[in-house]
Amino acid sequence: MSPVPASLLILALLLGGCSDSSAASALQEPAPPRPAGSEVADLRAQLEEAQARIVELEGELQAERAQRFAREEEWLRFTRGLSELSRAAGVKPPEFPTPLVGENPAPQASVEDPARAGRRAHGRELLAKLRALFFADEVAGLDLLEAGEFEQGALGPVVLRELDPDGRPYGTLCAERLRLEGSQAARTLTIVLEQGYERRGAQRFPFDEPGASVVETAADPAARRGTRRIELPEVDPARWIAKVPELFGPAAAAQPIDDGRHDRTVIRVALNLLLREDASAGWWRLSALGGVQGDVLREVVLDGFDRDGRMERKLFADRMTIQEQPTGVQLLLEQGAQVRGDQKLPFLEDRYRIFLPQADAQLWAKAGVPLVHSSPKRD
Using CA atoms, how far apart are residues 62 and 60, in angstroms rounded to an integer? Predict the structure, then answer.
């Protein structure tokens, strides 16, 4: 083996002596990377520890609040006793503020008015029945959510959710009172909402001003205005009247529609002759008459013709009265609908009026037609 040259030995010694810790560390192998799973585990452990601490602090806060309420209640009882003693002695007691009790008074047992409890119970019964009727008759676009008490022929306050054709909610109807109107002759039902508004998002639109939103404020009664009528032209009200007659008013009470004191055939023939007397602008024909009660014609159907004899519309009404006017007569139809072509529309405000200015009220009365006079007749 040949000897190492001295110059190489000297160079090696110089390199070793000049090397420092940083150079030595650079020559070392890099540390292996830490697995990513361990970091996730550490973060999860920290989160669990923080959540446990939150639960612990919430428990301590709840216990502290309970102790504060207990102390305030004890202090309140003391001040009340002191006040009673002071009144007995004729001395005005000092006043001590109790902000905690004022902000969140302790619930006190109170006896509910039996009459109001009965109205609430009746309201809950009506709510269940109405939901079943909504489902049975497939009332689309509405979902009855809440109802309050039943009083004076109406249910309220009520909340209904508005649904789009896909069943998604897009608005809410809130009203102080809900009642129903129906026409058995026209087979229509109307939901009447009184003193309310429609809510869309954070805006409220009173029923009497559907295009004007009202600024949302706490317990603001100003938005509860007007009436909204929701017509259901293809819903037979008979089942609704049988299930919830109290929401239809006294007119829905079961009673015969004919009192047996009139000849319906005579009335029908006479009325049709009188209705044809002035046909310059068209005429009406009574095509159906279910009965007569006093001066009221029940379950009537009127056919409307133009001057050329073509039928334009049909009117269905549960009630019709013939009223004497200063000039002519008026036919007042109530609780019904008109049909034109394939469209059926309930009467606006549940009434439809036909004025016949050329009619002679005295001739109508002599013909045996029930007539409501504008003023009492004198002998």
Answer: 5
DSSP state of 257: S
36-62 pLDDT tens trace: 567 777 787 788 777 767 766 766 776
C-alpha separations of 160 from 51, 102, 173, 194, 245 in Å = 40, 35, 5, 13, 20
First to last CA, the chain: 161
Helix (H) or strand (E) holding 16, with range, is: helix 6-18
Q: Name the region of 341 (left: φ>0; alpha: ψ -120 to 50; beta: rest).
A: left
Q: Is 356 exposed, middle or buried (0-12, 13-18, 19+ CB in 10 A)?
A: buried
Q: Other CB atoms closer than 10 Å to residue 163's CB: what's the count?
A: 15
Q: What is the pLDDT of residues 116-173, one digit of tens each?
A: 899 999 999 999 999 999 999 989 889 999 999 999 999 999 999 999 888 888 899 9
Q: Report yes or no: 288 and 267 within 8 Å, Cβ to Cβ.
A: no
Tens of pLDDT, residue by residue over 261-290, are 889 999 999 999 999 887 778 999 999 999
Instruction: Report cis status (omega within 30 of 0) of the bond before 157.
Output: yes
Residue type (1 letter), 205: F
Kindly state the helix (H) or strand (E) to which residue 47 belongs, with its residue range: helix 36-89
Positions of E strands within 92-187: 142-151, 154-163, 169-183
Q: Largest Cα–Cα distance of the chain, in whole Å?
A: 162
pLDDT at res. 289: 93
Cα 143 to Cα 374: distance, rounded to the nearest angstrom: 45
Tally the residues of the chain.
379
d(CA 178, CA 318) in angstroms, rounded, equals: 21
pLDDT at 74 (0 to 100)? 67
CA distance 41 to 15: 46
Residue 156 buriedness (CB in 10 A; 0-12 / 13-18 / 19+): buried
Euclidean distance between CA atoms 268 and 299, whole angstroms: 13
Assign residue 177 a region (left: φ > 0; alpha: ψ between -120 and 50; beta: otherwise). Answer: beta
Q: Name the residue with tokens 């049709």.
A: 272
